[in-house]
Task: structure prediction
Amino acid sequence: MLTVSRKTERLVNLTIALLATKRYITKSEIFRTVDGYEGNDESKERMFERDKDDLRNLGIEIEVGTFDPLFEDESGYRIKPENYQFQLGEVNAQEITLLSLAAEAWRGASLSSSALSALNKLHAIGIESDSELLLDLAPAIITQDENLAIAIAAITSRTVLSFSYLNEELKEQSRALEPYAVISKYGHWYIFGNDLDRRASRLFRLDRVSGELKPQGKSSAFEIPGDLDVNQAFAKSSELSSAIVFIRDGRGLNLRSRGSQNFTTSAPIGWQELKLEYLDRERFIEEVLWYGNDVIVFEPIDLRNEILGHLKAGVATYG
Amino acid sequence: MVKSQSTPVEKAARLLDLVPFISTHQGIALNELAQEFNLTERELLSDLNTLWMCGLPGYTPLELIDLEFESGYVSIRNAEVLQRVRLLTKQELVIILLGLDILQSSLDPKRDDLSGAISGLTIRIKKIVGNVAAALPIVDSTHRAIITQAIASRTDLLVSYHSTIKDTVSERVITPLELSLDRGFEVLDAYCQSAEGFRTFRLDNMRSVQLAGSSVNIPEPRDGSDYQWQLLIKSRFRTSSERFRSVYRPRESSAGEEVTVNSFSQDWLLRNAVSTLASVEVQLPVSARTLIAEKCQITLELYENWPFPN
Result:
């Protein structure tokens, strides 16, 4: 417990000393004046290096500068106030409320500790939230996936990730990815980036990652394209196929919402004709079969025959 | 939120955040401050005692941070250097960005003042971290807000619900009981007054939600009977497992995989079984096999009797 507070004290004291100084202060000055640097030169040196890394991980950038041009080895250190303080500039009560709501959406999810520290900072600004706003909004991000935190850390530090991904046969495939973005869509979390083995952009569903995402190598290892468009990640790469289906009155609600009604031919009474587009043939067959005798495929004929084949096999297997 | 022993670095970060917070909330009660930082009072006192030992080099009373908290109320002096609110880390900015995205997509269209403010903040954050995160929620936050309010005030709800199993949309009066998670989806456990039974509703399938007056019926305990089917997955292992919402693991062999799945809805299991005819065989119970055979038969007949040209 004692060592815990000593390390904590030293980090806070170092921050205060480096933040208060208007000029660069040298390492020997730090060791002489900042409380907590003890032992021989080597151990002080080691402590200081570790402290610098720890502060950097908290987002506190220590600047290194030459103290005196005549003594090159005597480099100095300081923290510029503008690199330390809240960086979103002036914020009003409404903005504080919105930022707080956005952070609070993570309550109980993975990443809730980052959300809490963000909230502490927002509240420390000392502007009261606009509580009128809070009533009718309850955003929530419900993921418990610990890999999301690792993905975000890798994106912000620009570190390569390696992981094993389960394919359709549930076999593990090794992947190495320069992660660019995380996206939540259709109720799932995705990570998008540059696949180093395939040398192309790829999108991965986080819940299909087997085990943990593992950061590889150094940070700042790549650049995230400046013109990155996250919606591009979902752009269909191959061509869509289309099918004509008949749907029973009032049925196939999800299909109806994404198809266009076709009035050119006359459907039997109690049925409507719909034109649907699809990317993956197997998936589309499964989707149509889900509706059983409420949806039937009319065209193309080969697709219709394939479904017919499955149904005949079903009767044979189960009948 | 999860409580765990803080590391020295986490504790240092918290101390750096405590200083500006106390500075803008001079005289705040200990318990209130502990709550704000999600700490026990004991942990907070340990933090304050450590902070008390910090200050500018020299470390005489003139340089040390001056804290007063013996009275049960906390005030701070001589901490000007740390008074600035710390910058948000990139990780924090990304999660705020995602939260803002979700807020934006569930705003009442009439609140374009808020929409403008959210866009403004989003632009400011993206300038710092880049366009690295986006979230398109499947659940409307305003629905969640109304449900939470209804549970708290014991009020019934009128919902327009799209049942994907029944493939219909219906209006129901329900008594909300509890929000929970079911295999990654947010669900509301409720007593359905319309169906006179306990039901689980997926929030993303709610088309509209409104308060419907105070609850009168006190529902009886839930009947927990489930349907259990035994499957043999023969191909398309990942898709088939996902359809039946069965937990999957990496596979070594390429042989078929036997899994047992549960659902309160036999109809849902049946639809999945017909959907995956090409890759999954339902082995048990025998009654399930009969149901599937019937469904295949009537669908097959429909195709065979359809007035297809030629």
